[in-house]
Amino acid sequence: MQRRGALFGMPGGSGGRKMAAGDIGELLVPHMPTIRVPRSGDRVYKNECAFSYDSPVRGASGGALPKRRNSKIFL
């Protein structure tokens, strides 16, 4: 979690300051050769996917569908 905090400017990482897009890019450059693009038939797990529905903000939907408030449909 310390590493993730350092990347996204969360408490406990980078002195509590928000990071600019350029700063994040500079951190990612050394890891670019290790990034693997999945091919057809490869399994991609949630912790490996950059397009995950997980959100670092507690309580945020993170892109998931909104919850239905009322399950009854009146016609």
Can you put this structure into words, describing what you see?
There is one protein chain. This protein starts with a helix and ends in a 47-residue tail after the last helix. 20% of the residues lie in helices and 0% in strands. It has a domain of 34 residues. About 15% of the residues have low confidence. It is mostly helical and 75 residues long. The chain is built from two helices and no strands.
Précis, in short:
20% of the residues lie in helices and 0% in strands.
SSE blueprint and pairings:
Blueprint: H1 2-8, H2 21-28
The proportion of residues in beta strands is under 5%
Quickly give the structural class: mainly alpha
Question: How would you describe the shape?
Answer: flat
Q: Give the N-terminus to C-terminus distance in angstroms.
A: 49 Å
Q: Roughly how many Å is the radius of gyration?
A: 18 Å
Q: Which sheet architecture does the biggest sheet show?
A: none
Unreliable parts: 4-14
Number of alpha- plus pi-helical segments: 2
What sequence of helices (H) and strands (E) makes up the elements? Answer: HH
Fill in the keyword field for this structure.
single chain, mainly alpha, 75 residues, 0% strand
